[in-house]
Q: What sequence folds into this?
């Protein structure tokens, strides 16, 4: 990944641990910061509505984007996360025509301590092509490199095997099972697998990497 967007290193962890709006270029896929401007795109709003209606997303990662009004409010909240440097939420889109593929969000759990959490979803038509893996890997590296994250966690329901694979492929080591730890879209508490990556862990190899090139531009 290019280092051109690396911010100046401050001695104050609160300054360093700020997510700065950035577009990550994976070649055929772009990761754009979600924000208010997406609310002006009917395609994006409808993509968020479709995501909320997908049964797997509704079960494992429910989205409050059931209609265009809700989707606009969701985008406003993502923008606020970027404004505070506290949440880095990216839309994964095709480089050719900007079609929505999915989303990856990195957010601080304990900013002073460098502890963050990452989550992801992809639209049904985009699944099984490595989009979630590549996007999560890129956002993970970016979070360690530019925002001084120390540890990033992924927690997924034990029954969500696809998410488990994404975590493993992205180098998030399994650390155990959290019992009845989160209430999911079916209204029930499920056990979750906790995975984590440390800044000091090696970058995983991934055969799904299409170009080996990840460009970075701040906006
Ligand atoms: C989890 C999710 C993001 C994966 O997206 P994706 O773009 O298909 O992911 P990738 O193509 O990068 O990788 C999917 C991996 O899961 C595997 N997989 C897919 N469905 C699976 C299933 N039902 N059981 C086991 N593994 C499965 C694939 O084989 C692949 O692994 P591999 O690369 O070792 O073959 C997507 O299924 C989704 O949006 N699910 C609903 C929301 C969700 O669960 N979010 C995560 C919450 S923790």
A:
């Amino acid at each position: 990944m290019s280092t051109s967007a690396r911010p100046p290193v401050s001695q104050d962890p609160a300054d360093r641990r700020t997510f700065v709006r950035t577009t990550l270029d994976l070649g055929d896929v772009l990761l754009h910061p979600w924000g208010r401007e997406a609310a002006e795109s009917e395609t994006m709003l409808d993509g968020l509505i479709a995501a909320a209606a997908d049964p797997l997303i509704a079960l494992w990662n429910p989205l409050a984007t059931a209609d265009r009004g809700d989707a606009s409010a969701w985008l406003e909240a993502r923008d606020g996360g970027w404004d505070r440097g506290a949440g880095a939420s990216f839309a994964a889109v095709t480089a050719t025509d900007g079609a929505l593929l999915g989303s990856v969000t990195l957010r601080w759990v304990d900013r002073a301590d460098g502890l963050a959490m990452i989550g992801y979803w992809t639209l049904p038509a985009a699944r099984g092509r490595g989009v979630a893996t590549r996007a999560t890997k890129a956002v993970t590296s970016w979070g360690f490199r530019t925002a001084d994250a120390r540890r990033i966690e992924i927690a997924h329901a034990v029954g969500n095997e696809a998410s488990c694979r994404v975590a493993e492929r992205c180098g998030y080591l399994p650390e155990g099972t959290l019992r009845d730890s989160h209430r999911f879209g079916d209204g029930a508490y499920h056990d979750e697998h906790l995975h984590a990556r440390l800044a000091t862990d090696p970058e995983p190899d991934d055969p799904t990497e299409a170009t080996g090139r990840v460009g970075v531009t701040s906006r």
About this structure: The pocket of coenzyme A is lined by residues 56-57, 60-61, 119-122, 126-133, 156, 160-163, 165-166, 169 (CB under 6 Å). The domain at 17-152 is CATH 3.40.630.30 (Aminopeptidase). The first helix runs from residue 13 to 16. The CA atoms of residues 113 and 150 lie 8 Å apart.
